[in-house]
Every structure is written in structure tokens, then in C-alpha cells.
Specification:
Keywords: Transferase
Pfam families: Glyco_transf_8, PS_pyruv_trans
Shape: globular
Protein name: Polysaccharide pyruvyl transferase
Number of strands: 23
GO molecular function, one term: glycosyltransferase activity
Number of helices: 31
CATH topology of the largest domain: Spore Coat Polysaccharide Biosynthesis Protein SpsA, Chain A
InterPro entries: Glyco_trans_8 (IPR002495), GNT1/Glycosyltrans_8 (IPR050587), Nucleotide-diphossugar_trans (IPR029044), Polysacch_pyruvyl_Trfase (IPR007345), TPR-like_helical_dom_sf (IPR011990)
Largest sheet: 7 strands, mixed
Structural class: alpha/beta
Length: 777
């Protein structure tokens, strides 16, 4: 799905489309039909799912026709993402077979309502007489067809519908019409209720799953043990374990009773699970466990989960609710991290100093102390703490980073304050992200050719903007804020603004020179949100104070306007990222006479779970196909904006035997970054600036969309076809086709890039005229 925003629009926009619609991220849900009789079985199913797959937490759709409020409360207590949906009993009145008062038949008909779900791309049905014993990763990764286990007793051409993995092409009105027509005609066998209707429609056309995903109890007759590789055990038959069970199946029923737990025992069992625990489940089960027990280690885990999700105040609250012994270093460190993230710096310092007493936590604690000192502008103190961290662990990367930052001698300002503009930006480290490294200079080029300290006073967004900083800014001609995705809650969290600039309202209100917000982006990922009211309050004040408020795409404009009162909407305008018009801004720019016969590939791995979901293996396999296909025409190289971006080359070599040359762009200066992108024929990039920078120097692009901002940019330039979702089923073939098409019509595509760029340049020039008036120039 692609949405195009009108270029240059400054009036109110319709609400932005959902992030999932823009990124194409596959939405997965489980589903069950539940009634009061089978409620004990469903509760055991939910417990088994969490304990067997502790890192999995998808929506769970509960189809029901009459559940009591108390039953719903029990269900919600066992899963944080329950979606209740009533089924329509009247829908099946005209079916010709079966006793409608018989539970099994009613359940069979009602479960067919799962095919009327339209909110998900993949739905996995589970019967309430099942328990999950093993990893369901294979089911979550399925992307095609309707998958099920063939019936054990009734032939391989029929499925057992207790477990279905249903893809979007079956979640349609057309398929539901087929089910309804078959159900009303009676032209099916009712041997296994809903299986009869479904089998009649499918006629054996389904994806066969291994029996371990729907291992029926009847296979264990004679009290046989449950096979070790069983992933889902299905208690078929009339006698259910919670109803007294059935003779001859004691080992299977003992397995079920292992999940018939009290809430306290279940919470404790989940928190003791090995492997990565899902944030939502950890918080959902861990919070009541901490309230009940005061368990410090559990409180640390829950707080760490809150921090990972950007819920810093919740992390403070849960750890502050328990008594932390003086020698419990890890909880002190996590509490210190949470406190510094909400700008309670003195309390954080005390907690982190306690954490330095344990050798296994000292390096991290010292690094956080160094970070806080640097945030407060105390480089000497920051260097002292960072050095202490390195002395504990010479390989500690974060301590080395803060030592490098603290030891860097800032450039000496050359101009007089009255001639300078102050510039709030994220100034990237030497080996930092190449795109972020280029941004501050490119923003300055939009205000004139001189980007040095003669004309500019640098204000690092992540340093605390205190009274001294305010005084320095007010001595300048004006304040520019940008560019980049500064509206993101977790890159360098603080409690003063809840976005990247660490400024409290009091200091923001005290700025008395013109404020110009220039090409800032709203950078929340699909699945990430700003939960703090603090961000909205800071944002509103910033818009009110700004003489110019320009966001870099219309998607960001829509998101920000939704957080503002109506009277401020028209203050928010479109200002493209200046990297997209670099050819117009860089002094003396000339397009390359010759280009290298290369295609550059960039992939990003920060917040990989939000980018890929369950689809990373699919993405990697499809990229391997594309690299081979494109590689038949020209050489493909890996362009790494950051150290982590090199992972695509490692994974392709390990998993698919493909070796790519790696270009370490994080080591490049700004001229080298632009030059590399200008001399290649095509850039396939996942990072925002792996699209905007090459576009800005006149090079064709294809964006691998894993973040809404990629789709926002392509909509602004009216070229959505230059983007492909990382979740696209046929990613490899589509990417190869589009890349080869661009290479074959290269001159025409370059001309199109230039034409698209002219549209953005006109907006930039019009805004520049307004900025000159604001500054009195």
C-alpha cells in the first residue's frame, strides 16, 4: 500500500496512514473460539504458549458468543494483547447438518469466523483443548497458503483444523462465500465438524505441516509417552483433562496438568524461563509478581524491559517499589539508567556509584556516569569515569566511546557571537553513522556556504541545555534546530523534553532570538510510540516559540500536527532534508562525468525486531536472490553507514555463500560520502539517508522499507515504486527487476532524479526567502 502526500502542502493534512501500512510489516495473530465450558482448557493453552515460546507475544483473537466478565478478566490476566470478538450465531442458522445446540458442532461452525478476520496478514488458530510444548517459530515464519497437519486417521488429503496457519489470501470475502455456500448446501461430511466444510472447499489443497504441530492424543493410546519433539499436543476426543480425563492417556494428561497453574506459580515459571523474554509478557507477568513478592531480581528484569521500550518512568517506579540491598549491583545500575533517562541525575549518580562495586557491572556503571558528566558539560569528570570503565574492562565499547567524546578538543570559535547562528544538532562521533555525520554540515549549507565556527555556534542536542547554554544562544543572531530525526524518544532519553534535545521548558521559554526548526523528522518506528505527555508539552512550546517550523516529510507533518492543537497546525510546514538537494547546496558541485559500474547495498540493524519482526530469514534469503540477480549485470557492494550495517555481508556469506566487498562509510568524511554515492549507478538502501544522500547527489535509489520515513520520502517525490517493503513476499524478484530496469534506463532515471529534486529545491528556496526575512538578512 502506498500513500502519496501532496508536495509543498502547508495546510492541515488527513491523518497519516498507519506505520504497518507504510512498511508492509506482516501482522500476525493467534485465534481461538472460547466458551465457558472450555475456558479451563484455554487458560492452560495461554500458559503453555507463554512458557514454551517466552519470546513470542502476538495479538490473540478470542472468538466467543457469551463469556462472563470474570472469565474475560482471567483471560486478560494471562495475555497482554487479547482481542475480543463476538461471533454471530445467526450466521449459521441455514447450515443443514448438525445439532446447533451441540457444543462441538457450534464450536466447529464458529471457528470458521476466523476467516472473517481482516486485521492481520497471518492468523494461527489453536483449539482450546491444545497445549503448546515447543517452538512455534516455523509457523510464525510461514508466509504462503493455508497450512495444517493432515488428519492422522482420515487420510493425507484431509486436514485437521485444530491448528491452521492462514495467510491473507484466505482471509477474504470471496473465500468466506465459498465456506458459507458449502455449509448451507450440506455438501460435506461432518465427520470432524468444521473440518468437513473446510476440507470440502480446499479438496486437499493445503500446505502440509509435520504432525508434531498438531499431535493428536489418540496416537498415544495405551499410555504412550509424548514424543520429545511435539510442538502442540491436541486432546481430541470427548474426555478433556480438566473434566477428569480418559483412561490410557495418563502421560499426556500429566503434560497438560503441568500448565494448570495458579497465577503465582505461572508468573514465577515464566520469569524463570531461559532465553529472551518478550517485553510485553515480562511486564504483564512480572509486575504483579514484584508487587506480590518484592523480588529484586524480577524487578530488575521488568525495569530493563521498560527501558528497552522507552518507558523510563515505569522502570523507575517498579525498581523504587522494592528494597534493593547495597550489594545488589545490577538492580542499582538499571535504576541508575532509568533515573538518568528521566533526568533525575543526582539520584542516578548515587545508584550508579553503588553499582561500580561489582566487577561484572562496574564498566557499564562507569560508562553511564561518564555519559551523565558529559551531558552536563564536564569533560574532565566524564573522562575520569570512562577511564575507570576501561580499567575494569579494556574491551568495553561504551566506556571507550565516552572517553573519546570527553577527550575531543572542541573547535575554537572564530567569529563574533553577533555574527553567528547557534545550531542544535546531533554531532556524530568519528566512527558514527555516516548519514548523521553529514547532516549538520548540510543543514548549515542551506543557510550559506560557510559552515565553520566562524559562522556557527554548535550546541550538541544531547547535552543539557542549562542557563549558561541559554546565555550563549541568546548572544547569537538566531537558533537553528536540525536536521535529522530528532523527534525520537530513545536515542538519548531525557525527562526534560522526551525527545533528543535535552531542554527543559524554562530554558526553551527563555530563548529570545529567532528559533528555526529545519528539516526535523518524526522518527518513531512501526511498533514504537511516544507515551510521555512531556513530549507533547515540549513540542507545543517549541512550535509556539518557533519563527520557522519545518519538517522533512509530509508523514512527519501529519504525525506532529496530530499532537498539536488546531490553531498551531499551519505553523508546521514542509522543508525537505537538505541532503536531498545537495547538488544545489555544495559549493562548486559538478556531476560526475563517469560512474563506477557498481550497485551499493545498505541494510540497517538498529531495533532489528521492529524492522523485521519474524521475517529476517525471509529478507536475507530474498536479498541473496537479488544480489545474485543484480550481480549478473554489475558488481554489488555493501555500503555500511555504521559498524552494525556490516552484518548483511556477514550473514549473506554465512547463510548463502555470498561474499560482498564492504565499504566502511562510517570512516569517511563528508566529501567522501557524497563522492561515493555520486559515482555509483544505483543505491539500494534501508537507512533513510542511504536514500536521501544518493538522491541528493543525483543517483537513482531503491529503498528497502522497514521504517515509515522511507515511504514518507518516496511519497513526497511521487515515486513510491522506488521502494519495496522488507516484508514483501517476492522481494528478491521485485528488487532484481526494478534494479535491472534502472540500470538499463540509467540516463533517463538520473534525469528523473534531477527533475524530482528540482521540486524539492523550489520548496527549499521559498523557505530560504522566509528565513532571510526572519533573520533580517
Amino acid at each position: 500500500m502506498t500513500t502519496t502526500f501532496p508536495a509543498g502542502t502547508t495546510s492541515s493534512l488527513a491523518p497519516a496512514p498507519s506505520s504497518a501500512a507504510l512498511t508492509g510489516k506482516r501482522r500476525v495473530a493467534f485465534a481461538s473460539y472460547v466458551d465457558e465450558n472450555y475456558l479451563p482448557g484455554f487458560l492452560a493453552l495461554l500458559r503453555s504458549l507463554a512458557l514454551s515460546n517466552p519470546g513470542v507475544c502476538e495479538d490473540f483473537v478470542v472468538l466467543h458468543d457469551d463469556l462472563r466478565p470474570g472469565s474475560i478478566a482471567k483471560i486478560r490476566a494471562l495475555h497482554p494483547r487479547i482481542v475480543l470478538r463476538r461471533v454471530n450465531a445467526e450466521h449459521y442458522d441455514s447450515y443443514q447438518k448438525g445439532d446447533q445446540d451441540n457444543y462441538l458442532v457450534r464450536k466447529a461452525y464458529f471457528i470458521l469466523d476466523v476467516f472473517r478476520i481482516r486485521d492481520y496478514d497471518t492468523v494461527i488458530t489453536l483449539d482450546t483443548d491444545m497445549v503448546v510444548l515447543g517452538d512455534l517459530g516455523e509457523l510464525l515464519r510461514l508466509r504462503e497458503g493455508l497450512a495444517a497437519v493432515p488428519q492422522f486417521f482420515y487420510g493425507q488429503h484431509k486436514l485437521n483444523s485444530g491448528l491452521l496457519v492462514i495467510q491473507r489470501e484466505y482471509l477474504t470475502d470471496a473465500f468466506c462465500a465459498k465456506l458459507d455456500a458449502t455449509g448451507r448446501s450440506g455438501d460435506y461430511e461432518l465427520d470432524k465438524h468444521d473440518q468437513g466444510i473446510l476440507n470440502a472447499v480446499l479438496d486437499g489443497d493445503f500446505v502440509r505441516l509435520d504432525a508434531r504441530y498438531n499431535f493428536v492424543k489418540r496416537r498415544l493410546s495405551g499410555d504412550l509417552p509424548v514424543p520429545d519433539d511435539t510442538a502442540i499436543l491436541h486432546f481430541t476426543g470427548r474426555h478433556k483433562p480438566w473434566q477428569g480425563g480418559e483412561a490410557g492417556y495418563s502421560q499426556a494428561e500429566e503434560c497438560w496438568r503441568g500448565f494448570d497453574l495458579s497465577d503465582a506459580d505461572f508468573h514465577a515459571a515464566y520469569l524463570a524461563s531461559s532465553g529472551g523474554l518478550h517485553h510485553d509478557l515480562l511486564v504483564h507477568f512480572g509486575t504483579p509478581h514484584v508487587m506480590r513478592t518484592g523480588d529484586v531480581e524480577c524487578a530488575r528484569k521488568v525495569a530493563a524491559a521498560h527501558i528497552t521500550a522507552g518507558d523510563y518512568q515505569d522502570a523507575v517506579d517498579v525498581l523504587s517499589s522494592v528494597h534493593i540491598p547495597l550489594d545488589a549491583a545490577w538492580p542499582h545500575e538499571v535504576l541508575g539508567h532509568a533515573l538518568m533517562s528521566v533526568s533525575r541525575y543526582e539520584e542516578a549518580r548515587a545508584q550508579l556509584l553503588l553499582a561500580t562495586s561489582a566487577p561484572n557491572r562496574a564498566a557499564t556503571a562507569y560508562a553511564r556516569l561518564a555519559q551523565m558528566a558529559w551531558v552536563h558539560g564536564d569533560n574532565a569528570e566524564a573522562l575520569r569515569y570512562a577511564t575507570a570503565g576501561i580499567s575494569v574492562d579494556p574491551t568495553h565499547r561504551s566506556s571507550r566511546l565516552w572517553a573519546q567524546r570527553a577527550g575531543t578538543v572542541p573547535a575554537q570559535e572564530q567569529g563574533s557571537p553577533g555574527e553567528q547562528l547557534a545550531h542544535v544538532a546531533f554531532y556524530m562521533d568519528r566512527q558514527g553513522n555516516a548519514g548523521d555525520k553529514l547532516l549538520p554540515e548540510t543543514v548549515r549549507l542551506a543557510f550559506g556556504e560557510d559552515t565553520t565556527s566562524r559562522r556557527w555556534h554548535s550546541v550538541h542536542a544531547h547535552r543539557l541545555f542549562d542557563e549558561a547554554a541559554l546565555e550563549r544562544v541568546n548572544a547569537r543572531r538566531g537558533l537553528v534546530i536540525g536536521g535529522g530525526g530528532l523527534f525520537i524518544p530513545d536515542t538519548m532519553p531525557n525527562g526534560n523534553s522526551a525527545w533528543q534535545w535535552n531542554v527543559a521548558d524554562e530554558q526553551l521559554s527563555g530563548i529570545d532570538v529567532p528559533i528555526m526548526v529545519y528539516a526535523v523528522g518524526f522518527n518513531a518506528f512501526d511498533g514504537q510510540s511516544y507515551r510521555a505527555g512531556r513530549f507533547r508539552e515540549s513540542l507545543r512550546l517549541l512550535v509556539e516559540k518557533s519563527a520557522f517550523f519545518g519538517l522533512r516529510n509530509h508523514g512527519s507533518i501529519a504525525k506532529v500536527r496530530a499532537m498539536l492543537p488546531d490553531h498551531l497546525h499551519d505553523r508546521v510546514r514542509f522543508q525537505p532534508c537538505p541532503t536531498t538537494v545537495s547538488r544545489q547546496l555544495v559549493p562548486g558541485w559538478t556531476d560526475p562525468v563517469h560512474r563506477e559500474d557498481t550497485v551499493l547495498l545498505n541494510a540497517a540493524y538498529d531495533r532489528a525486531g521492529l524492522r523485521f519482526g519474524h521475517d529476517y530469514g525471509h529478507f536475507l534469503a530474498e536479498i541473496a536472490k537479488a544480489v545474485r540477480g543484480i550481480g549478473a549485470h554489475t558488481e554489488v557492494r555493501c555500503a555500511a553507514h555504521s559498524l552494525d550495517d556490516e552484518r548483511i555481508a556477514f550473514d549473506l556469506r554465512r547463510e548463502h555463500g555470498i561474499s560482498l566487498p564492504v565499504i566502511p562509510m562510517y570512516d569517511f568524511d563528508n566529501d567522501a560520502i557524497r563522492d561515493l554515492y555520486a559515482r555509483t549507478r544505483l543505491v539500494i538502501g534501508m537507512r533513510g539517508h542511504a536514500g536521501m544522500i544518493p538522491f541528493g547527489v543525483g543517483t537513482p535509489i531503491i529503498s528497502l522499507i522497514s521504517h515509515p520515513k522511507m515511504a514518507y520520502f518516496l511519497a513526497d517525490i511521487e515515486r513510491p515504486e522506488w521502494g519495496i517493503s522488507v516484508h514483501e513476499r517476492n522481494l528478491g524478484a521485485m528488487l532484481t527487476e526494478r534494479a535491472v530496469g534502472i540500470l538499463d534506463a540509467h540516463a533517463a532515471t538520473v534525469a528523473d532524479v534531477h527533475e524530482r529534486q528540482r521540486t524539492l529545491w523550489k520548496v527549499t528556496e521559498a523557505n530560504a526567502a522566509d528565513l532571510r526575512r526572519i533573520l533580517g538578512a
